[in-house]
Specification:
Elements lengths: L3 H15 L4 E6 L12 H8 L4 E7 L2 E6 L4 E5 L4 E6 L9 E7 L4 E6 L5 E5 L20 H9 L5 H6 L9 H11 L12 H20 L40 E5 L2 E5 L6
Antiparallel strand pairs: 1-6, 2-3, 3-4, 4-8, 5-7, 6-7, 9-10
Helix pairs in contact: 1-6, 5-6
The protein binds a DNA duplex (16 and 16 nucleotides) through loops.
DNA sequence: ACTATGCCCTGGGTGC
DNA sequence: TGCACCCAGGGCATAG
């Protein structure tokens, strides 16, 4: 599932093919019209065609395509979405839901098996990402911010990491990995962590994201980068989908539980 | 104000 | 082999 490192990897791959190029045509295939949230699919096509992409940014898991009319095309890949640069004559892919044709003759494929991905076109990006918190890589995401937000809530730490109002960009994989790295039981109440533990957790969040980004993201099943390739970071997972295996830090065994409706992996021996 | 649950969607896995 | 069922989960709507 694309989280911050995967979305950032995609952004870096596709940006050079898009910036300063004009959108010549857009196809949204039959059955995929629901991806268009702020407009109907046909309206969205009309709004995009003829626009030049001036920059490509990211906030959390959202990709922000800045357009030359000062609006922003906001894309969220959700669970199985991918944006892949391709050649103009490439045949339609099995799960290709939309296709953007550029005036440099490259095409951008929007591939999304489960059709959860969303598109908005907005004047103010807040309309596409209401109440979103600071990006995990931004200067606003400090230990102090994390401490304040965790202390205001009484939810499991892992659930807090998944809450994009607290910090934007973490999904199920890196929430589990960050809790492991910090030695925190994901079920611990968020308002129950010492300053020392919050400092550890903040550092762990950044280090697991950095490691994943350095390896081009994590692919367990569906994630593909801007060239359609799998990421290389799954070998670095210490707990995610490792239930039944020995812990890499102690003699415990990784377990899998359900927490907030999400599969959650941790070591009961060394995560307290 | 808060937290918890169901929904969207499709493929892969499991059990009978 | 086939078929029914469950699971995967990001963000939103709704319920309590």
């Amino acid at each position: 599932m694309p989280e911050l490192p995967e979305v950032e990897t995609t952004r870096r791959h596709i940006a050079p093919y898009l910036i300063n190029n004009e959108i010549k045509d857009v196809l949204i295939y039959k059955g995929a019209e629901r991806l268009a949230i702020s407009h109907t699919a046909s309206e969205m096509i009309r709004e995009l065609v003829g626009r030049r992409i001036t920059n490509l940014e990211r906030h959390g898991k959202y990709l922000l395509f800045l357009l030359d009319d000062n609006r922003t095309w906001v894309v969220h890949l959700r669970m199985t979405g991918a944006l892949i640069i391709s050649k103009p004559i490439s045949p339609k892919q099995k799960y290709e839901r939309a296709r953007i044709i550029l005036d440099n003759d490259n095409v951008l494929l929007f591939d999304d098996m489960r059709k959860f991905g969303t598109w908005h076109i907005v004047k103010n990006i807040i309309d596409a990402m209401p109440k979103i918190g600071p990006d995990a890589y931004s200067s606003e995401f400090t230990v102090q911010w994390l401490l304040e937000k965790l202390s205001q809530r009484k939810i499991p730490v892992k659930s807090a990491l998944l809450d994009q109002k607290i910090v934007a960009g973490i999904g199920n994989i890196y929430a589990d990995e960050a809790c492991f790295d910090a030695g925190i039981n994901p079920n611990r109440s968020s308002n129950d962590l010492s300053l020392h533990k919050v400092k550890l957790l903040h550092g762990s969040i950044l280090s697991v994201l950095d490691l994943a980004l350095g390896n081009g993201g994590t692919t367990f099943s569906n994630y593909r980068d801007g060239y359609g390739r799998a990421g290389n970071n799954s070998i670095n997972a210490k707990v995610f989908r490792r239930e039944g295996f020995e812990c890499s830090r102690c003699d415990g065994t990784i377990v899998k539980i359900k927490l907030g409706g999400r599969g959650t992996h941790y070591c009961p021996s060394c995560q307290k």
